[in-house]
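Need a sequence for this fold. Nothing fancy.
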């Protein structure tokens, strides 16, 4: 970490360099305070430019310091020292001015930015609120309404939007340093605007805060920080600066130590670590400049859209012209939906479609770098596709299957140059879901595996390496979750009480509602395959529902009944009768939300620990990312493994033992007992 002070005549240039993102470590905070003192004492200096080296302006406080006691100088004091400096400071922003970085900029008398810069206070995404005056200075500068949007959403704004809001004083084209110095020379002659802390918050109309509270609560659901941030913003507009600072700081320090903040920090670092797994360090991926997708159904079309969103030219192959046209219609519908939701413009949608060639001639793939197969989930059908690909593609082209349940190793039998083959398991809708399970086969080369991770970075996905087993990481845990949920039905719970309990825990929907949405026939198909392999999947009620073709919303009934045109689930007498018959003679109990959540979640953790033990997943954090980005597990819980560790693994083992003793869950597996002794899952890898 360095802070250097340069001089351009009467303008001092303070350059911060603390790679990778100029985070406000203790050393940097101290250096900034020192710089203020040094430059205040230098009469020759008329104004100061604060600029950062590297790819971004200050991206916030150093999140890695959060687990430790805060060290002085504390950021509010750093910002106050810049704000009360004798010379006007100009923050010169490029990259991302986020969190404490924007708060430092709000301490400066002026802010200028390059057009590509983004500015924001994302603290709520880390389960905290701004802690260095952001909730007090921002509404004073840009007004309460804009400040509420920025702070409670945590979403950054562009330089252009920041200029419109008055958050920056100028958007500078060309070299930032040169432009900022020229700006500083200009303002050095002028009287500086009053420090933001001395300004008042513009008044709001009656009811503003009440309606803001409703809107924020609706979006935040169970996340605590957005409403606490709103309370701090309101405090800032209703009291003096010092009281508001005190309130903000107290809230910040309290939330910083909270379980939600710990969980969101865990996910923050897990997501970043997932992009560059240590086991692939130093391995150069193959270039991906062109791609192709075999199969234009729901998954294939979504994958094509994701590849086009990343700017890759794509060939869509289908078995005949009619199917090709159907595939292109599916892709066009995806982009039309994005235009309708205002995500892209019509001209962008047209440009996306223009980059797709549809055809039934595999000969089109002679020079394609990456081919992803997304055809019907049938081994023979998939093998036939790869046989053809083996004969038409370059030897170094990467060949991938999007299978979600079949064994990639079995699919790859007969593929020439098998080292170029791997599984790339996208989640539906593939153009939106962030998770990508990357499944190496036995002979997959390291650079091909690295290519899978590079593709994920290109597509903005969260990659997780998954070993080969039935369902890889995510669907394997899903199978156990569903079986466990069904086990509760035979001991007194109902689909409604189980689903309600899981929603209370924080999931967007319960296991039974989710099955009705996706269709019960998909899992029935897998159970049939499992039974043919000699396994005994537990789904006594689901089997009977499928036998009477209750496949969910699409058949007007599954675990619930549905009126036509209405997706609201209604408890079903038919289902209740089947459950009662299957539960006959079994002990019944009264289940409350917490007990149901325990029975379902801790069984999930038990199976996930087996997956870790078998190295189907290499890190507990990877399993957390799979559940959060593929199955809607609440981010603010940190994922099932973080949740279990934070709760104590010894307690998890004890609860599972209790449930198992009553025949209501599988007993804790050996690996979970071992992890519980160490109090952490990482002990399993030692
Ligand atoms: N602290 C520590 N490390 C950080 C960091 C931070 N704030 N931000 C990023 N890193 C690390 C990251 O872990 C990764 O490490 C490397 O930098 C590159 O990150 C008082 C208290 C800035 C938009 O929430 O959003 O200020 O994996 O891969 O894609 O009110 O990082 O290489 O070892 O993400 O180019 C508020 C968080 C903090 C911003 C760059 N700030 N960072 O994205 O790179 S709270 C944030 C980001 C706060 C005050 C409060 C992004 C980025 P490694 P990367 P990127």
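Here you go.
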């Amino acid at each position: 970490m360095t802070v250097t002070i340069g001089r351009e005549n009467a303008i001092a240039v303070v350059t911060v360099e603390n790679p990778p993102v100029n985070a406000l470590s203790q050393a940097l905070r101290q250096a900034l305070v020192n710089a203020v003192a040094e430059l205040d004492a230098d009469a020759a200096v008329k104004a100061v430019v604060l600029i950062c080296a590297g790819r971004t302006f200050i991206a916030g406080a150093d999140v890695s310091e959060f687990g430790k006691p805060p060290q002085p100088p504390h950021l509010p004091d750093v910002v106050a020292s810049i704000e009360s400096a004798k010379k006007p400071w100009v923050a010169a922003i490029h990259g991302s001015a986020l969190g404490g970085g924007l708060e430092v900029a709000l301490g400066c008398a002026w802010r200028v930015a390059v057009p590509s810069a983004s500015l924001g206070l994302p603290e709520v995404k880390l389960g905290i609120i701004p802690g260095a005056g952001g909730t007090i200075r921002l509404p004073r500068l840009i007004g309460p309404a804009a400040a509420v949007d920025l702070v409670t959403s945590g979403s950054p704004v562009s330089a252009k939007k920041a200029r419109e809001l008055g958050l920056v004083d100028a958007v500078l084209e060309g070299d930032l340093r040169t432009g900022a110095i020229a700006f500083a020379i200009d303002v050095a002659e002028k009287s500086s605007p009053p420090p933001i802390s001395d300004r008042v918050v513009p008044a709001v109309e009656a009811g503003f805060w009440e309606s803001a509270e409703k809107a924020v609560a609706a979006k935040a659901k169970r996340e605590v920080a957005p409403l606490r941030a709103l309370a701090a913003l309101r405090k800032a507009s209703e009291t003096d600066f010092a009281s508001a600072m005190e309130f903000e700081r107290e809230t910040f320090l309290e939330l910083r130590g909270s379980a939600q903040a710990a969980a969101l920090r865990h996910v923050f670092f897990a997501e970043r670590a997932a992009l560059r797994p240590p086991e692939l360090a130093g391995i150069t991926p193959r270039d991906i400049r062109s791609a192709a997708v075999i199969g234009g159904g729901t998954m294939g079309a979504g994958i094509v859209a994701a590849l086009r969103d990343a700017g890759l030219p794509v060939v869509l192959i289908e078995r005949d012209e009619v199917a090709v046209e159907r595939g292109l219609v599916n892709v066009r519908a995806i982009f039309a939906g994005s235009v309708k939701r205002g995500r892209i413009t019509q001209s962008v949608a047209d440009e996306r479609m223009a980059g797709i060639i549809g055809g039934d001639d595999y000969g089109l793939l002679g020079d394609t770098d990456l081919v992803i197969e997304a055809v019907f989930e049938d081994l023979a059908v998939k093998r036939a596709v790869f046989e053809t690909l083996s004969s038409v593609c370059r030897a170094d082209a990467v060949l991938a299957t999007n299978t979600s349940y079949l064994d990639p190793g079995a699919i790859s039998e007969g593929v020439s140059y098998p080292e170029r083959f791997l599984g790339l398991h996208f989640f539906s809708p593939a153009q939106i879901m962030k998770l990508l399970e990357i499944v190496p086969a036995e002979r997959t080369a390291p650079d091909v595996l690295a290519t899978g991770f590079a593709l994920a970075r290109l597509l903005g996905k969260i990659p997780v390496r998954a070993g080969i087993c039935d369902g890889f990481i995510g669907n394997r845990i899903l199978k156990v979750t569903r079986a466990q949920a069904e086990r509760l039905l035979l001991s007194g719970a109902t689909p409604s009480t189980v689903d309600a309990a899981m929603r209370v825990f924080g999931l967007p929907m319960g296991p039974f509602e989710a099955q009705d949405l996706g269709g019960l026939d998909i899992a029935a198909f897998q159970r049939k395959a499992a039974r043919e392999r000699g396994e005994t999947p537990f789904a006594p009620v689901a089997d009977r529902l499928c036998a009477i073709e209750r496949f969910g919303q699409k058949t007007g009934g599954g675990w619930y009944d549905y009126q036509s045109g209405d997706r609201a689930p209604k408890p079903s007498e038919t289902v209740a009768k089947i459950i009662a018959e299957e539960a006959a003679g079994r002990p019944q109990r009264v289940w409350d939300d917490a007990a149901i959540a325990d029975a379902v979640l801790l069984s999930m953790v038990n199976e996930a620990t087996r997956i870790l033990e078998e190295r189907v997943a290499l890190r507990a954090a990877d399993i957390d990312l799979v559940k959060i980005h593929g199955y809607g597990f609440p981010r603010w819980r940190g994922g099932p493994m973080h949740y279990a560790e934070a709760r104590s693994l010894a307690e998890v083992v004890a609860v599972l033992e209790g449930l198992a003793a009553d025949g209501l869950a599988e007993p804790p597996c050996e690996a979970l007992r071992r992890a519980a002794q160490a109090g952490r899952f990482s002990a399993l890898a030692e």
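For context: The chain has 28 helices and 17 strands.
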